[in-house]
Structures are given as C-alpha cells and as structure tokens.
C-alpha cells in the first residue's frame, strides 16, 4: 500500500483567523515529529494566496511570519517532504485593519476570477513557492474543495506548471451555498488521468488525479463531536487559535442524520477513523491510501491516533509525497491502479 499524507497549510477564515504560529508552524512541527518516527513523508499544500499577501504586507509582523513560514518550508524540503499549491483566493480581497484580518469571502472560488486574472495570480503564487523552496510546485489542491467546473481552471493551472490534482474524494459533496462541490460520480480507483473534468477519466489528459481516500462516516460521529464541544478537554483542543467559516444549516443537518462519504483525515477526532479508511481501501482492492488534514485542526489526541496507526501499519507502507508519486506514475496511461503500477514498475 502506498501511503501519502497531505495537509492544507493555512489560517482559519472565520473570525478570528488565528495566528500563523499556532495554526501552521507549531502543529506542522509536531506532525513532522510523528511522521518522521515512522519514515512517513509529508506534503504541505500551502495556501499561497495568504503567503503572497503577507509577503507584500507593510506590517512587520506579517513579514516576520512570512520569514518563519519560508524557513519551515525550506526545512521540509531539505528533509524529503513536499511543498505544493493550495489557493484560497479570498485573501486578495481581505485586509489587515486595526490589528486583525477582515476576511471578505465574496470571491471564495478561483472561478470568481477571469481566466487572465487567474493565470497572473497562479504564476505569481508558483513563483513565490519556487523562490522559497527552489522547486516549482506540480500538484494542486483546491481551497474548500471548490474544483468544479475544472474547465475554468485547467488552462491557467497547466500554464503555471501544475500536472496533478488531489482534491476529489469519491462520493463527497457539499451543499454549502457558494462552496458547493459534487464528487459523487468519481471513480474509486487509486488515481487516473483527466483533462478538463476530474470526474471524467481521459488517458490523454493533461493532469493526474490522486483522489483523497475516503471513509464512511456514521452520523453518530458528528453527535459525539457535538457532545465533545459541550465538555472540551485539553487533549482534544486543536492547535489552531482561530475559527472556521460556518456552514449552512442544511450542511450540518445532513451530517447529523445521514451516513456520508468523508475524507480520510488526521484532523481532530477524524484520526480515529484511519484504520477504517485503510480497511475500506483494501476492500476496494486499492493500493493507495491518501490521507489529508489541516495543521490548524490537529490536537494531541489526533497526533496520538496517527502515531498508533503508523506504529501498526507504517512499516508495511511505501511512503510517498505528491511529487514522488507523480514521478512514479506521471507517465502511466491507465486509470487503473494495479495495471498502471505494473506498467510503471
Ligand atoms: Zn484550504
């Protein structure tokens, strides 16, 4: 089984946004401590819109934060981890005022920008990452899973050097107004090639889709989460010191009353479902477990659960980053994991 872990490295987007130290730097360092014990490799999907924003800020504290982040990203790369592209474009419209970020999410999706504006934005962000790490990013994960319709993004992403996406999770969907996505028609294969629709495999397509692995989440999981909110404990408290954007009522109701296809994740209590995600992947005949998470949402409990999981299974995994996976499978012209691995191997 090939194992990847990719985290969205970002602040919160509610009020307050939290600090880069607590939402990004400290939890990523703690996560590395766990992963490196087991030989696992981390891919960090950097919210590069935020990074460019603080790089261009006149505030000293933002430029200091930029320097700290750049240093952490350089350390990651020097230790065989991976730095890739994640974009929350609403940073372009958000401003620092009287000691805090004023977040404007009217343009939350890349689709809210024209193709020309998008091309310029992505070129600038890719250049920013490249200047820090010395390596151009090749993989993309959409902010808030807002990937569709991909045809709007395909040209600008490809022109910016992106060859791979890891946003789709099979069976996933969201009804949050303005943040909808629908991956219910996606294959459950380990990976596939596509061109302008990640749900439509195309062997000659420009991109490789490496979907995030899924796990069947029972509604009881969310009821337990609600109960835990009433009785907060230190061990469950997230590293991050900000607040998430809230969802619509329909979004939460659906979670509380129906089973869903969720992402295999190391965030908070979701990390308890890693063994189940692995078992479900195996049952489907899969050869890749691609787990996600957010440093801001990690807790002492989730890191312990990840540590236990890797202790049990890590030595049987073939550990990859997005770029090592792309190098290995990038040319394989198949949509099927097994066949493609056999050909590439
Ligand atoms: Zn994100």
Question: Would you give an account of this structure?
Answer:
The structure is a single chain. The chain has 345 residues and is an alpha/beta fold. The protein has one domain (2-344): TIM Barrel (Alpha-Beta Barrel), CATH 3.20.20. Helices cover 39% and strands 17% of the residues. The protein contains 11 helices and 15 strands. It has helices at residues 20-37, 48-55, 60-78, 115-133, 151-159, 219-230, 249-257, 274-283, 300-313, 322-329, 337-344, and strands at 2-9, 42-47, 82-87, 95-97, 100-102, 139-142, 164-165, 173-174, 181-182, 192-194, 207-209, 214-217, 260-263, 288-293, 318-319. Strands 1, 2, 3, 6, 7, 10, 11, 14 and 15 form a 9-stranded mixed β-sheet that branches. The model is unreliable at 332-345 (pLDDT under 50). The structure holds zinc ion. Residues 8, 10, 47, 86, 88, 143 line the site of zinc ion.
Structural class: alpha/beta
Q: What kind of sheet is the major sheet?
A: 9 strands, mixed
**CATH architecture designation:** Alpha-Beta Barrel
| CATH class identity | Alpha Beta
By DSSP, the count of extended strands is: 15
Query: What coarse outline follows from CA principal-axis ratios?
Result: globular
The name CATH uses for the topology is: TIM Barrel
Give helix % range.
Answer: 25-40%
The CATH homologous superfamily corresponds to Glycoside hydrolase/deacetylase
* Poorly predicted residue ranges: 332-345
Secondary-structure element order, N to C: EHEHHEEEHEHEEEEEEHHEHEHEHH
Instruction: List the domain count as a whole number.
Output: 1
Strand fraction: 15-25%
Distance between the termini: 14 Å
Bound ions, cofactors and other small molecules, one mention each: zinc ion
Mean pLDDT: 92
Number of helices: 11
Radius of gyration: 19 Å
């Amino acid at each position: 089984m090939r194992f990847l872990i990719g985290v969205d490295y970002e602040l919160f987007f509610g009020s307050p946004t939290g600090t880069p130290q607590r939402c990004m730097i400290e939890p990523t360092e703690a996560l590395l401590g766990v992963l490196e014990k087991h030989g696992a490799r981390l891919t960090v999907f950097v919210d590069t819109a935020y990074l460019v924003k603080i790089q261009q800020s006149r505030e000293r504290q933002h430029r200091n934060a930029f320097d700290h982040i750049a240093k952490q990203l350089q350390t990651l790369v020097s230790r065989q981890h991976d730095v890739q592209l994640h974009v929350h474009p609403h940073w372009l419209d958000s401003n620092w005022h009287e000691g805090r970020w004023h977040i404007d999410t009217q343009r939350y999706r890349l689709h809210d920008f024209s193709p020309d504006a998008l091309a310029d934005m992505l070129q600038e962000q890719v250049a920013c990452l490249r200047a820090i790490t010395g390596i151009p990013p090749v993989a993309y994960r959409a902010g808030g899973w807002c990937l569709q319709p991909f045809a709007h993004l395909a040209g600008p992403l490809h022109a910016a050097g992106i060859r791979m996406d890891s946003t789709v999770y099979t069976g996933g969907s969201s009804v949050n107004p303005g943040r909808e996505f629908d991956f219910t028609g996606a294959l459950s294969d380990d990976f596939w090639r596509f061109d302008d629709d990640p749900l439509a495999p195309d062997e000659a397509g420009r991109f490789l889709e490496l979907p995030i692995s899924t796990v069947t989440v029972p509604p009881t999981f969310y009821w337990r989460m609600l109960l835990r909110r009433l009785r907060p404990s230190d061990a469950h408290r997230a590293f991050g010191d900000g607040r998430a954007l809230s969802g619509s009522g329909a979004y939460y109701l659906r979670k509380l009353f129906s089973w869903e296809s969720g992402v295999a994740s190391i965030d908070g209590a979701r990390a308890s479902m890693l063994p189940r995600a692995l078992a479900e992947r195996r049952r489907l005949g899969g050869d890749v477990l691609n787990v996600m998470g957010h440093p801001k949402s990690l807790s002492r409990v989730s890191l312990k659960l990840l540590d236990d999981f890797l202790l049990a299974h890590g030595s049987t995994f073939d550990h990859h980053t997005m770029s090592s996976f792309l190098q290995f499978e990038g040319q394989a012209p198949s949509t099927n994991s097994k066949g493609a691995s056999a050909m590439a191997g």
